[in-house]
């Protein structure tokens, strides 16, 4: 596997992944470079790449009305999130929940300065995305053969060939492409994944022209130690400013894994409002790390993110209500409980003051 990805990468680039083609003009985040770091080595500013509407909803058994998806995306836009993965142009037989991709893109608000990428597994998906007017797409390879077969029905090497066609065609249209490496620290079918194998697949995606590569702990089995090993191997082939992390929270390690990634300089974090999500082809994997939890972590370090926690909480409560289930974010639950307690205290104080004023009025009248 490692060799296959390396060979392919070499074949695509001639002299290796570092000869990355320049990023696109007009794709604002795609063209940006990371700036300052804090004294602790962490980035001073982090971009949240919100995957709730896509990764979060793709696995839902119940049918979610298009209007609900659109409302969620609009609320996340209102929260100030600058990258929101809206949906997927994949086979509706494989992921029926996102069969309304075209309608979602048509109906949602497209705010200036916000990217709304969509997943495209092949040229057919890209064609659908272009027809819908999308300006950023994402391709998704895996560091594990078994997962690649289950998720996209082909080997890793075949998928990279397919993605190269997508990347070339997208870039011709001026459309930015992001890459994912699934199972970067563990696979539901094969178990252990070699950090070098994940790094090689990431390098192949970066080398073919993805402006950023998101290294995904698809089933949330990683720990800070295994994340660090994987990222250190990857950073030998891709600059850290072009890396993102995508952590599922199955074992409750996602926040620790993100903190470890920040320490290595990673400045783009994928997350999902209310902790929604799970991949249909990753048995037992729970949702992504919740956006609210990541914002709380970033606030704790004094890292800028430009997002309104209140507005994310509103989106989080909205989608949890629409799905009829408890909010999956611990931070959302804690903040909402604290706010409810404060509101109750305030209401009691007001009632007491009103009663006292009434009693005083009655005494004066007597
Ligand atoms: C890749 C394929 C299409 C191969 O699926 P296949 O069955 O090998 O493809 P095919 O080319 O033989 O086509 C089969 C049928 O699908 C149609 N088709 C083919 N392509 C498309 C398309 N783009 N849009 C709409 N329809 C499409 C095609 O036209 C045909 O229709 P039919 O003739 O039978 O009526 C399929 O396996 C697929 O769609 N897989 C998607 C799986 C997926 O979305 N998984 C979840 C996302 S990945 C993820 O969540 C991980 C990530 C990114 O979040 C990071 C992480 O945490 O790891």
Characteristics of this structure?
366 residues, alpha/beta, TIM Barrel, nine-stranded parallel β-sheet, 13 helices, 46% helix, 11% strand, globular, disordered N terminus, binds 3-hydroxy-3-methylglutaryl-coenzyme A
Please tell me about this protein's structure.
The chain contains 13 helices and 9 strands. The protein is of the alpha/beta class. It has a single domain (2-328), classed as Aldolase class I (TIM Barrel, Alpha-Beta Barrel), CATH 3.20.20. Strand 6, helix 8 (195-208) and strand 7 (212-217) form a beta-alpha-beta unit. Helix 3 (66-78) runs antiparallel to helix 12 (309-323), helix 8 (195-208) crosses helix 9 and helix 9 packs parallel to helix 10. The chain is globular and about 90 Å long. Residues 1-26 have low confidence and may be disordered. It binds 3-hydroxy-3-methylglutaryl-coenzyme A.
User: What is the CATH C-level name?
Assistant: Alpha Beta
Please give the largest β-sheet. Answer: 9 strands, parallel
Report how far the terminal alpha carbons are from each other. 91 Å
Distinct small molecules bound, one entry per kind: 3-hydroxy-3-methylglutaryl-coenzyme A
Report mean pLDDT, rounded to a whole number: 90
> Which quaternary structure do these chains form?
single chain
Which band does the percent of strand residues land in? 5-15%
- Overall SS class: alpha/beta
Catalytic activity: (3S)-3-hydroxy-3-methylglutaryl-CoA = acetoacetate + acetyl-CoA
InterPro entries: Aldolase_TIM, HMG_CoA_lyase_AS, HMGL, PYR_CT
Keywords: Coiled coil, Lyase, Metal-binding
Enzyme class: lyase
